[in-house]
Specification:
Blueprint (H helix, E strand, L loop, with lengths): L28 E2 L14 E12 L2 E10 L4 E8 L6 E6 L2 E2 L11 E9 L2 E9 L3 E8 L5 E3 L8 E6 L8 E7 L10 E6 L6 E7 L10 E4 L4 E3 L2 E12 L2 E11 L7 E4 L10 H4 L7 E8 L5 E8 L3 E8 H10 L5 H4 L5
Parallel strand pairs: 6-10
Antiparallel strand pairs: 1-22, 2-3, 3-4, 4-5, 7-8, 8-9, 9-10, 11-12, 12-13, 13-14, 15-17, 16-17, 17-18, 18-19, 20-21, 21-22
The chain binds beta-D-mannopyranose.
Length: 340
């Protein structure tokens, strides 16, 4: 695509492996040495998956969903020079409230990590008298201050846009139930201050295609491009043997992101490898973060695999957007403003 541009910072050190020759017709390929984080990665943590990564300094920082050996999920920090090899803290992140007092969630899972202006936000799912969204902010990855919970229960899969739109912070989320939620669409909410949220809009519903016919949920932070916001999300189908989670892609309008411009009818990645098909929850690929370089269009996609591992996949952003556009099927509920 001639005029395509990523409107994101350069990231010359984006983790990268060239496309293997046998991959044709698909815009995303997996890292050959997956998984990048295996089982029992640090003492007390059985599995790390559904985790987010961001460039920081001359390397990378991650917030990791760590399933402790008592089964309770929490968020851990990791550091890496190259994005492939991770040093993971043994201690979970210690959250404080606005007065600096300890304020730990009961549990915490599926963190996303998004920088807006000079602040890094962690957004995750936690107990707020039922599954709901938690938020904390940091500027130094030493002090993590929890802010007001943005939404009432039940809600999951929230992720912030990396910049304000029309002067407001913008968050995607998926209202849910307190269990395994056999339904769910992606909604958008705005806030002037990260405290009060409103102007809720429907973004897109579950699709008619088999791989996203049950529910969908936000994934990695939307990526700003000359074509609109590139959103990698997860789509779920129900089978006689349980749910199957795949990765889907859509492009949202740059100024009104509740409007879907393009939505790929094909999945971009679906469980095929042993570490995606076999694990604590089989058949799950769950995207939570991307790193992209606006100079080269190289993209690294971090995803959880089978609720047991962290996987890495790669794409060229221009090819990925082209693929989404060429296989786009949008419905009325995708393309409308989402207000009823
Ligand atoms: C969802 C979330 C994810 C998990 C997925 C598959 O409801 O809990 O953390 O990866 O189920 O188990």
């Amino acid at each position: 695509m001639n005029n395509f541009r990523l409107l994101t910072p350069k990231a010359a050190n984006v983790p990268w492996q060239e496309r293997p020759e046998h991959i044709t017709g698909a815009p995303i390929w997996r890292y050959s040495e997956n998984p990048v984080i295996g089982r029992n990665p640090v003492e007390g943590v059985a599995r790390i998956f559904n985790s987010a990564v961001i460039p920081y300094g001359d390397g990378f920082i991650s917030v990791l969903r760590g399933e402790q050996v008592n089964g309770v999920p929490y968020i851990y920090m990791g550091r890496s020079q190259d994005g492939f090899h991770w040093e993971i803290d043994k201690e979970k992140i210690r959250f404080v409230d606005e007065n600096g007092e300890a304020f730990m969630p009961v549990y915490a899972y599926d963190p996303r990590l998004v920088k807006v202006e000079d602040t890094y936000y962690i957004i995750w799912c936690q107990d707020f008298y039922g599954a709901a969204i938690g938020v904390a902010k940091t500027t130094d990855f030493k002090t993590f201050v929890r802010t007001e919970n943005p939404f009432l229960p039940f809600n999951r899969n929230a992720v912030l846009f990396p910049r304000k739109i029309g002067g407001n912070y913008v968050m995607l989320s998926r209202p849910s139930d307190s269990g395994h939620t056999p339904f769910g669409d992606i909604f958008l909410s705005e806030s002037p201050d990260m405290v009060y949220w409103g102007k809720h809009r429907h973004v897109m519903g579950k699709g008619s295609e088999w791989w996203q016919s049950l529910k969908i949920g936000g994934g990695a932070a939307p990526i700003e491009t000359s074509e609109g916001w590139l959103l990698l999300y997860h789509g779920v189908t129900g089978t006689c043997n349980g749910y199957v989670y795949s990765i889907g892609g859509a492009i949202l309008d740059i100024d009104n992101p509740s409007i879907v411009k393009y939505r790929c009818e094909n999945y971009l990645l679906t469980p095929e490898e042993w570490y995606e098909e076999r694990g604590f929850v089989p058949n799950v690929v769950f995207p939570c973060a991307t790193i992209q370089d606006s100079e080269t269009n190289k993209m690294a996609i971090y995803y959880g695999a089978a609720d047991s591992y962290v996987g890495l996949a790669f794409a060229y952003a221009d090819e990925l957007v082209e693929y989404i556009k060429n296989h786009s099927v949008v419905t009325e509920s995708d393309t409308e403003i989402g207000r009823r």
